[in-house]
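Minutes, methods subgroup
Present: GH (chair), OT, SY

1. OT presented the first of two proteins processed in the latest run. Sequence and structure tokens recorded below as shown on screen.
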Amino acid sequence: MATRTTYEPDRVRSMFNRIAPRYDLLNHLLSSGIDIVWRKKAVRLLQPDAPEEILDVATGTGDLAFEAARSLRPRRVVALDVAGEMMKIGEAKAIRKGLQDVVAFTEGSAEFLPFSDASFEAVISSFGVRNFSDLNRGLSECSRVLKPGGSVVILEFSTPRKSPMKQLYALYSRLILPGVGRLVSKDKEAYRYLPETIAGFPDGEDFLSLLTAAGLESPTQTRLTFGIATIYHARKPLDRNRNEVRN
């Protein structure tokens, strides 16, 4: 398992608040816009479940929450993040998209979710899980607030395993990504942080094991675009002792 780089929660919050005005531009620029396609694929995994209550953890400016609201037409999507400046931008986007009555932003951390047990039928996240200050606790909290039979869908960056993409991506992460990020964001720390957290993230089979340890079952992974991103999907077991069934 990779050695994970961790940052103090207050430092991460401050950093994302600083880069909030340029965050969307940077995401689309550094991924050549393919992050939009990745989010659509992630949300599509939930279509058979048709969840009515969805939690988007580490929502940033809300792009995954908006995709879920548009594609799945749930009753409510709660979009949670620690960075208030990011959510202000998300709230403005929700109004422009006409989704302010469906997507509700709330400030909070993944490690201490401010919701009761079994509150949501789906928990989703895109490019935010690697920012959890305590990954195991954050995943356990996602499991706690999920209803039995509900799904967790996580989209996260990963490291390509096969040549030549492995070598090309290593060069991109070390030299190009921090430089472009620093040029656009004007924040050297923020885009040194990005390649460090990607390189240290326990992706692939290691992350599937963490999902299982958090109380989820049947975890799967779908690698995207030569392995530079991965969609993880797992489900909370039904409580057969209480004869609970999925809605």
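2. SY then presented the second protein from the same run.
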Amino acid sequence: METPALGGGFADLLAQVHQRAAGNDPAGLLDAATAISARHAADADRLLDHFVTHARGTGMSWTDIGAHLGVSKQAARQRFATTDPAATLPFAARTATRLQACLDQATAQARADGAAEIGTQHLLAGLLTEGVAAAILERVGVHTPAIRDASHRLFSPPGPTGTETPPMSTEATCALDAAAHLAATNTPPDSRPAEVRTEHLLAVLTLDPGSRARRVLNDLGTDIAAIKRELQCHLTLTPARPARWWKRRPHTPPGCSFCGRTDIGPGELVHGPGVAICRACIVLATDILHTRQPTG
């Protein structure tokens, strides 16, 4: 089937597909087209995100932005709220030097993969650069090449190496924010601001069962419990439970275990091991025993 005349942009995309597929196998061409389509869709989203952020920075309302995009104010806010400058996380100012080196390596990993975004799988690979997290991962047998192989197998094959720095994915951004929160909860109030370190990020990535990083670890057969035990030497992963105050049982006066009466005068109740019996019940029991004795 002949290919119709195409505009330069579409023709360039076709050329990229054939170059990536390196053959005419239909399945290979489809995989290449899917990867390139996803990359360009991500670029389009980044372009729109950039100018929505610019519009918000100039004071443009969500109502006006939604009108220009052809959606409601609520839909525009829900789609682009993370691009709002007011929602920017003050994360970099609290990042430890070793963690920053790991984040730089994660960026390099994503760029080498030709990824549209820096995912949590890239953050996991970056943590092997240095620090406590690197030591823990090495002790449980996790290494960078294995992480990359599992990521490519689970998510997408590597593409051409990118030249621009890809943005953080939503999942990665949330992981960094959670790491900052964990650091704050593990820092005494008089020692703040908290410093976010590699072990904080490793805890978040490892203990989130739905993250890409955790899926990679599961694919590698990593002992998650072993990582948690190692982390507990450095962090408090479970917040201390507040002291439990047991309700004091209301005082009830002693009573007869048989008739249940409690309005018994002093000396009228006889106690035994775990039971008590009043004088009236003793008399009744004595009468019952006498009536059951054989006559003769």
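Chair's summary of item 2: Confidence is low (pLDDT under 50) at residues 1-7, 83-93, 239-248.
Next meeting: continue with the remaining queue.
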